[in-house]
Amino acid sequence: MCGIAGFVAPSLRAEATPEVMTSMLSLIRHRGPDEAGYYLDDGIAMGTARLSVVDLATGAQPMADPTEHYWICFNGELYNHIELREELRGLGRRFRTRSDTEVFLQAWAQWGPACLPRFNGAFAAAIRDVRSGDLFLARDRYGKRPLFYVDREGCGAQGGGSGEFLFASEMKAFRAFPGFRFELDPRELASTFAVWTPLPDRTPFRHIRQLPMGCYLTVRGGRAVLGDYAELELDVPPFTGSEREAAASVREALRESVEMRLRSDVEVGVYLSGGLDSSIVTKLTTDLSAHEVRTFSVEFDDAVFDESSSQQVVASHLGTRHSSIAVSSADITANFPSAVYHAEVPAFRAAFVPMFLLSRHARDAGIKVILSGEGADEAFLGYSLFRETLLRASWGELSDDERMARIGSLHPELSHFGPANRARLKGLFEQFAVERLPGLFSHELRYQNGRFAARLLKRRDDPFADLMALTDATPGYAALSPVRKAQWLEFKTLLPGYLLSTQGERMSLAHGVENRCPFLDPAVVRAAASINMRFDDGFDEKAILKKAFWGELPESSLTRRKQPYRAPGAAVFKQQRPDYLELILSETELEKIGGIDPVFARKLVKKIMATPTGEVSTKEDQAFVYLLSTAVLNQQFVLGQDMPGDTAARADFKVSTIVDQRTSRGSKPAGQDFPSAGGNR
User: Fold this and answer.
1) How far apart are CA 362 and CA 445, in angstroms?
2) CB neighbours of residue 83 within 10 Å
3) Residues 110 and 91: beta-carbon distance below 8 Å
4) What pLDDT does 674 receive?
């Protein structure tokens, strides 16, 4: 795993280019602490900070094909690189390394953008075509790896100018480019607060966009043109075999997925939460590994959030060498600013901070690669959201007794879904039995919390307008069933925008740990789509997965209801009172956050601080964490203060490879230290 960065900037002084490129890489060195290199040509630069996982000795970047027609900077892994290498060799392609980076490059040279649907992996890549002068950017189909860009001064598809184009795995790298300044975008903040994540092509900052999942971008002649190569496959033909055959098919697809993701020249560990998904990944990993498997997990002092007993049961049953880290309220508040710095977006809960600490724990144990269970709930309808959607969609067909029984089964882990509150909940579900937000029926209940959080902004635009425009413009979306629409929304918003990024990849790569997600294999997602609700009514949580692994996992893992991973929220900040809490307690500091409504924000903060923890509503808790994380982002990125990454020592980090096409052809070694990255200039 790595971090990549670069720019197309014909007007940048030639002598400044190496320093700017090096400074950009220095700001994302945590993603790839093993080595770094960059490529320069007239008006263009791109580089990689590399985490060595496959082909440690000869996989250095930037890398060229044998003719030096193409150069690549690659972040990620191609899990099917062995199969692709053999296919390409059969077509006459010659390889000089064992790395999947070279496979990506040779596939591009052979097939161009048509190679992208062939890839089974997690990646973001930049490719330079020396002959045409084009720059290509590409991102994997599920958005596992980030890729951001800035299209300045009319360089983009709408402008046709010859301005500057910047790209990077993390937005913080843009701080090193002359003249760049971060500015929060109130419209995007409102959408983020409402939807819980930025939309697929958006960020919270003005002028910064992200390359959507399953897309590529061509920068040519001063224009940036977006293309897509992979649609989300949810509406697939139903599985035609028996239930037993379906379970066997799912198990085999997952086994093959885990086997591919164990391809590595370094040890691979597993995050074990104790739930069904991570237990399945752990089970398959122990089956396929020739050595003892190491598993890692988080423990909480608060029993409401702690799953350590379930983790221990699974670890003992499967014989893993298990290690856990205990996370306290003080740990969450102490590490919140650093975790926000790496997340780069506002967050609606603090659950990403323990994952930040867990990845550090795994790194300190010598682990560079981790398997985890993300994507299972989206693919196999594991969330209660899907059952809520089914219930609301069939509301008019059910009796009152059936409605009450179904409500009671939705969230057994949440006290406010208990018997005492079911009459009130029945009234709430009654209100949302008919669609109000076109195309967003499945998420309307959730989005009420988001609508409340959007009141933190001065803008009073509809915060869901852009999401509704996206679904309206998506071919085939309107014809999907309510549950399929719910899946589409999860795959396009919360999964890539929070679970795979803020809580996943960004926390792992903060400490140089690569995460891999076996449930997000195209074959697994297709298998799930063909089987979901084929043999059950959708109310039996992940029924086919349980059948596929029945008898192979502890019975408790297969029978207990899902306990979503959660962590304490506003309560920890009230208890610990960290210094940065002043950013939202002080009226003066609140006024510094562009776009925030200080009147509503002050009322919210005052209420949270004065209300007993048990009486703070979910929507208030989420809005509080949103406000605090936005204040920290503003302090770090917009005001340029308290940037955790800027204080790290860089004297021991060298640029090992420089390719300067301005003066010569080919690469040369360099013993150049990373200079300190500049602030906003």
Assistant:
1) 37
2) 14
3) yes
4) 35
